[in-house]
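Running this now, will post back.
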Amino acid sequence: MTNTTAHIAPQAAPAVNAVLRVPPASPAAAAAHFGASLAFHADVSDVASALAAGGDPGFVVIDSRNTASWDQGHVPGAVHLPTALIPEHAERLLDKSVPVVTYCWGPGCNGATRAALALAQLGYQVKEMLGGMEYWIREGFAYETWEGRQTPTADPLTAPVDSDDCGC
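Update: finished.
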Protein backbone atom coordinates (compact mmCIF):
# COMPACT_ATOMS: atom_id res chain seq x y z
CA MET A 1 0.00 0.00 0.00
CA THR A 2 1.47 3.27 -0.98
CA ASN A 3 0.81 6.42 0.94
CA THR A 4 0.24 9.29 -1.41
CA THR A 5 -0.55 12.67 -0.16
CA ALA A 6 -2.28 14.95 -2.55
CA HIS A 7 -0.80 18.37 -2.66
CA ILE A 8 -3.45 21.06 -2.21
CA ALA A 9 -2.37 24.49 -3.18
CA PRO A 10 -3.43 27.18 -0.71
CA GLN A 11 -6.10 29.43 -2.11
CA ALA A 12 -5.23 33.06 -2.27
CA ALA A 13 -7.38 35.29 -0.12
CA PRO A 14 -9.52 37.61 -2.16
CA ALA A 15 -7.94 41.00 -2.67
CA VAL A 16 -9.46 43.66 -0.42
CA ASN A 17 -9.42 47.22 -1.64
CA ALA A 18 -8.64 50.16 0.61
CA VAL A 19 -12.33 51.07 0.92
CA LEU A 20 -13.29 47.72 2.40
CA ARG A 21 -10.07 46.94 4.28
CA VAL A 22 -11.94 48.17 7.35
CA PRO A 23 -15.51 46.91 7.01
CA PRO A 24 -18.39 49.40 7.13
CA ALA A 25 -20.05 50.00 10.46
CA SER A 26 -23.31 48.30 11.29
CA PRO A 27 -26.41 50.19 10.14
CA ALA A 28 -27.22 51.12 13.76
CA ALA A 29 -23.70 52.46 14.39
CA ALA A 30 -23.76 54.36 11.07
CA ALA A 31 -27.14 55.92 11.92
CA ALA A 32 -25.83 57.05 15.30
CA HIS A 33 -22.65 58.51 13.77
CA PHE A 34 -24.31 60.35 10.89
CA GLY A 35 -27.14 61.57 13.09
CA ALA A 36 -24.58 63.01 15.49
CA SER A 37 -22.67 64.61 12.61
CA LEU A 38 -25.80 66.45 11.49
CA ALA A 39 -26.32 67.68 15.06
CA PHE A 40 -22.88 69.33 14.89
CA HIS A 41 -22.73 70.55 11.28
CA ALA A 42 -24.71 72.52 8.70
CA ASP A 43 -23.69 73.08 5.11
CA VAL A 44 -23.55 76.45 3.40
CA SER A 45 -26.49 75.80 1.09
CA ASP A 46 -28.77 74.92 4.01
CA VAL A 47 -27.66 78.03 5.93
CA ALA A 48 -28.13 80.22 2.83
CA SER A 49 -31.56 78.74 2.17
CA ALA A 50 -32.72 79.32 5.74
CA LEU A 51 -31.47 82.92 5.68
CA ALA A 52 -33.02 83.60 2.26
CA ALA A 53 -36.43 82.30 3.33
CA GLY A 54 -37.00 85.54 5.22
CA GLY A 55 -38.12 85.96 8.77
CA ASP A 56 -36.32 84.47 11.73
CA PRO A 57 -34.26 81.44 10.68
CA GLY A 58 -34.08 80.24 14.28
CA PHE A 59 -30.31 80.63 14.55
CA VAL A 60 -27.64 83.31 14.44
CA VAL A 61 -24.53 83.09 12.21
CA ILE A 62 -21.15 83.93 13.77
CA ASP A 63 -18.09 84.88 11.71
CA SER A 64 -15.18 83.88 13.93
CA ARG A 65 -12.42 85.48 11.80
CA ASN A 66 -10.40 88.62 12.46
CA THR A 67 -11.48 92.10 11.33
CA ALA A 68 -9.36 92.12 8.16
CA SER A 69 -10.97 88.84 7.07
CA TRP A 70 -14.46 90.10 7.97
CA ASP A 71 -13.83 93.20 5.86
CA GLN A 72 -12.87 91.05 2.85
CA GLY A 73 -16.32 89.51 2.90
CA HIS A 74 -18.83 87.95 5.28
CA VAL A 75 -22.21 86.26 5.27
CA PRO A 76 -24.96 88.91 5.18
CA GLY A 77 -26.49 89.25 8.63
CA ALA A 78 -23.66 87.44 10.38
CA VAL A 79 -22.38 88.66 13.73
CA HIS A 80 -18.66 89.37 13.82
CA LEU A 81 -17.22 87.67 16.91
CA PRO A 82 -13.60 86.56 16.56
CA THR A 83 -12.84 83.38 18.48
CA ALA A 84 -10.41 85.10 20.87
CA LEU A 85 -13.18 87.54 21.92
CA ILE A 86 -15.91 84.97 22.55
CA PRO A 87 -15.36 84.64 26.32
CA GLU A 88 -15.69 88.37 26.95
CA HIS A 89 -18.34 89.34 24.34
CA ALA A 90 -20.61 86.34 23.67
CA GLU A 91 -23.09 87.04 26.47
CA ARG A 92 -23.50 90.65 25.34
CA LEU A 93 -24.09 89.69 21.68
CA LEU A 94 -25.88 86.33 21.84
CA ASP A 95 -28.97 84.81 23.43
CA LYS A 96 -28.30 81.34 24.87
CA SER A 97 -31.77 80.19 23.79
CA VAL A 98 -30.92 80.75 20.10
CA PRO A 99 -28.68 78.21 18.33
CA VAL A 100 -25.45 79.54 16.83
CA VAL A 101 -23.80 78.55 13.52
CA THR A 102 -20.09 79.36 13.33
CA TYR A 103 -17.91 79.73 10.26
CA CYS A 104 -14.34 80.63 9.38
CA TRP A 105 -12.40 80.65 6.09
CA GLY A 106 -13.02 77.15 4.78
CA PRO A 107 -12.44 73.44 5.13
CA GLY A 108 -8.70 73.91 5.62
CA CYS A 109 -9.26 76.07 8.70
CA ASN A 110 -10.47 74.90 12.10
CA GLY A 111 -11.30 78.37 13.39
CA ALA A 112 -15.04 77.68 13.26
CA THR A 113 -14.45 74.51 15.27
CA ARG A 114 -12.52 76.45 17.92
CA ALA A 115 -15.27 79.08 18.03
CA ALA A 116 -17.96 76.39 18.34
CA LEU A 117 -16.04 74.80 21.20
CA ALA A 118 -15.68 78.14 23.02
CA LEU A 119 -19.40 78.84 22.62
CA ALA A 120 -20.43 75.33 23.71
CA GLN A 121 -18.25 75.68 26.81
CA LEU A 122 -20.20 78.86 27.63
CA GLY A 123 -23.52 77.02 27.31
CA TYR A 124 -24.60 77.84 23.73
CA GLN A 125 -26.19 75.37 21.30
CA VAL A 126 -23.85 75.43 18.33
CA LYS A 127 -23.23 74.01 14.87
CA GLU A 128 -20.33 74.56 12.51
CA MET A 129 -20.99 75.61 8.90
CA LEU A 130 -19.06 73.17 6.73
CA GLY A 131 -17.05 74.80 3.96
CA GLY A 132 -16.96 78.20 5.62
CA MET A 133 -16.66 81.43 3.68
CA GLU A 134 -14.79 79.69 0.86
CA TYR A 135 -17.71 77.47 -0.03
CA TRP A 136 -20.25 80.24 0.62
CA ILE A 137 -18.56 82.17 -2.18
CA ARG A 138 -17.85 79.13 -4.37
CA GLU A 139 -21.55 78.21 -4.29
CA GLY A 140 -22.42 81.71 -5.50
CA PHE A 141 -24.11 83.13 -2.41
CA ALA A 142 -24.01 86.90 -1.93
CA TYR A 143 -21.62 88.27 0.66
CA GLU A 144 -20.97 91.71 2.13
CA THR A 145 -17.78 93.74 2.25
CA TRP A 146 -17.07 97.28 3.40
CA GLU A 147 -17.82 98.25 -0.23
CA GLY A 148 -21.28 96.65 -0.24
CA ARG A 149 -22.91 93.43 -1.35
CA GLN A 150 -21.10 91.18 -3.83
CA THR A 151 -22.61 88.25 -5.75
CA PRO A 152 -20.04 85.83 -7.11
CA THR A 153 -20.54 83.42 -9.97
CA ALA A 154 -21.09 79.90 -8.65
CA ASP A 155 -18.35 77.36 -9.24
CA PRO A 156 -20.06 74.59 -11.29
CA LEU A 157 -17.99 71.98 -9.47
CA THR A 158 -19.48 72.93 -6.09
CA ALA A 159 -23.01 74.11 -6.91
CA PRO A 160 -25.75 72.80 -9.19
CA VAL A 161 -26.05 74.48 -12.57
CA ASP A 162 -29.55 75.82 -13.38
CA SER A 163 -31.01 74.68 -10.06
CA ASP A 164 -31.35 76.03 -6.54
CA ASP A 165 -31.16 72.57 -5.00
CA CYS A 166 -28.61 69.81 -5.46
CA GLY A 167 -31.14 67.20 -4.37
CA CYS A 168 -29.18 65.97 -1.41
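The CA atoms of residues 40 and 122 lie 16 Å apart. More later if anyone needs it.
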